[in-house]
Design brief:
Blueprint (H helix, E strand, L loop, with lengths): L2 H14 L1 H18 L5 H15 L32
Length: 87
Amino acid sequence: MDFKNIIAKAKDFAGKNPDKVRDGIDKAEAVVNEKTGGKYSDQIKKGADAVEGQLGVDQKAPQGGDAQSAPRGDASAPPAAGQTPQA
């Protein structure tokens, strides 16, 4: 199996299971932060965000597959395409 095939399978899984993937990345982030005493938390967060972005499950994606779901992360971020701003 070549590397491109592995990446394609990971993206396919992430597309079908975004909440599980985000949860796994968050847990890995927490473990690394714990092991490093939080010394590299900014770099770890950037890395986790990059992985989520590459897999298509970035923090701005709605959870639960519901277009009305609240996005993760900053509540002041603009709504995703097709969503209306919430008051």
